[in-house]
Amino acid sequence: MDASAAPTKTEKETEKEKKQRRASKPKVKTGCNNCKNRRVKCDETRPQCQKCVKSGRRCDGYPAYNPRRDGARPDFVTRILPAPAIKPRDSNPSNSYRSYSISSRSSSSGSSASPPRIPPTAVVRRRPERPEIPERPEGSERPERPDAIRFSPMHAAPSISLAFDSQESLYFRLFREHTANELSGFFDSGFWTRSVLQESHSEASIRHAVVALGALYKTLEKASESPPGSPDSDNWEDTAPDHYNFALQQYGKSLKRLREALEGRETRSPRTVLISIVLFTCFQSFIGDHKNAILQIQAGLGLLEERRAEQRQPQMLQSPPVLEDELVQMFTRLAVQAKSYDMAFHFPAPYVIRLNPSGFPSSPSDPSSPSSISSGPSEPSIPECFETLQEARTSLDSLTERIMCFSEALSTFYGGPSNILPTFIRHSGQAFRASLESWSKAFEPLLESRRNIGITNTQRAGINVCKMMQLMTAILFWTGFSLSEMNFDAFTPEFRFVVELAKEIVVDEELSLAAKRCGSLTKCRHHQPSYHQSLPAPFSDEDAFNHIKPSFALDLGIVPPLFVVATKCRDRKLRREAIRLLVSSPRREGMWDSILSGRAALWIMEIEEEDLPPYHPWTADQDLDSADALPPDDKRVMVKEILFDLQKHQATLRCGTRGLQDASVADARARETFITW
């Protein structure tokens, strides 16, 4: 028989064989745990895959990144995604002081937390995952209120040796020697350098959180390495990914340990719980998870208020005070920070801090007396002259908190759009205006001493920041009674002083780092244009501070005051100077990010100046008619809302007319834009 006559498969048989043959595709190991167990294709939607959602299943999360399995990725920089938080159970912010719990996502295995394993910094190629904390076992009891915790004495004797392995020990030492001072910002803080370290000797959750922060700081250091050819640049290997992954592991362990202690009703002092909350807030602010950071602060304020309420009950056997002033002051600053963030960006509930946990009175009984509305500890008297910077700062913190409480309370009765108060009740704030002036007068000798011999850069920066915060508070409080953006023009001298003080800080930082890293500025290669990024128009490469690396501190510093100048000062030169300082010296102060703040202000400036002639720095100092250089009233706008993701470096900005009374009327000045950086 001829070979051509050999039997062949029919076309129908061939098609049937194709249908039966399983498609061959590369194995995917990044699907969620549920889909992997069910052996179905996962769509990998975060935080919950749609396959699980549509089938009515609870998505149990994704497996940890394995460097050996997934391969090294040295060419990308990553943002850290949110992690479980201690947060109020009640989504109603008014009830957020009443109870708290540690939230978590369930783990199918019920084993220890398995945090994501991805490196940090600025551009993402694959999405990191949240650490997984096991859900509490069925039938186990959860304390319904913080008073379910059994409190122990305030201090425990340090152990002889900490239960560290060699890697944990390295990060703990890094925290003790470097990170603790960095977190303090421009102020000396015994909280970080003494209290936290002492507590870590006896509390595992704090110990793991300290190690996590040490690893995060190492991550930041490695992820923001010097430009190529820098004297201290390193190989990428064994840098950001390793430190970042370890930070997440330790953070997961810290959350898990505290959660187990609270649910198991182990003895824990309120001091231990509050310090843990501060550390968790710090971690989440560091990674840009402002929502969980705010919920942490709410939980801490709730516990503080409950402890104060217990101390005020005479019929109960009072225990000795366990909350030292240092810890109370820390939460005061965190509350002020969160409130300032909300006032600037207008967050929705439940991410709005309420400074008055007891609720507001039915009516302001005496509007001329701020103390009749604000609650909390009584304001200490302001001396004629502050002896120390710490004394001045504590006084300003207390005054700022009371002013915010006062404004918050009045807003419940008279508040208009964007919490702007009507002008006819401005007289009710006269007492606070007098207090701010008294503080400024008492602070003057310290301010004048900032350039004295023997004053360090850190001390000088602390003095400058205190004055900047006082000026910002005064400006915002007094203009809070105005429906017009034109009233900010009266504060141009104050805006100028804020910029001068901020520039002193940044220039001191630049000179100090330049001397440390390069020795001689004449031999410094960082000033070559190829070694740093250009800034957005109207700025140039020459405006960059090339030795300042990205930094993080939990305390507020120069960013909020500069943001106020950049958005409210219409002097074209001062406004650009403020934006330049924000974008050219990247830093995150608590939840305040300088790059986001600078980009938002730049957008506002471009809107307001779109009908003005182009601005040229070389003609700015000429004798021009100031009215011609300022945006008219009908072009001025205010920030209405900023929705952002610091981990993805993107934000949606909205602005509009200040004090628009009728919400049914379309705002002719309303604008919206989407930015990335």
Automatic annotation (TrEMBL):
Which portions of the chain have biased composition (kind: Basic residues)?
19-28
Ranges annotated as biased composition (Low complexity): 91-115
Going by the entry's taxonomy, the superkingdom of the source organism is recorded as Eukaryota
Keyword annotations for this protein, in alphabetical order, are: DNA-binding, Metal-binding, Nucleus, Transcription, Transcription regulation, Zinc
UniProt-recorded name of the protein: Zn(2)-C6 fungal-type domain-containing protein
Cite the InterPro entries for this sequence.
Fun_TF (IPR021858), Transcr_Regulatory_Proteins (IPR052360), Zn2-C6_fun-type_DNA-bd_sf (IPR036864), Zn2Cys6_DnaBD (IPR001138)
Output one GO MF annotation.
zinc ion binding
Q: Locate the region Disordered.
A: 1-35, 54-146, 360-383
Q: Where is the composition biased (Basic and acidic residues)?
A: 9-18, 129-146
Q: Which Pfam families match?
A: Fungal_trans_2, Zn_clus
In this chain the Zn(2)-C6 fungal-type domain maps to 31-59
**Membrane spanning stretches:** none
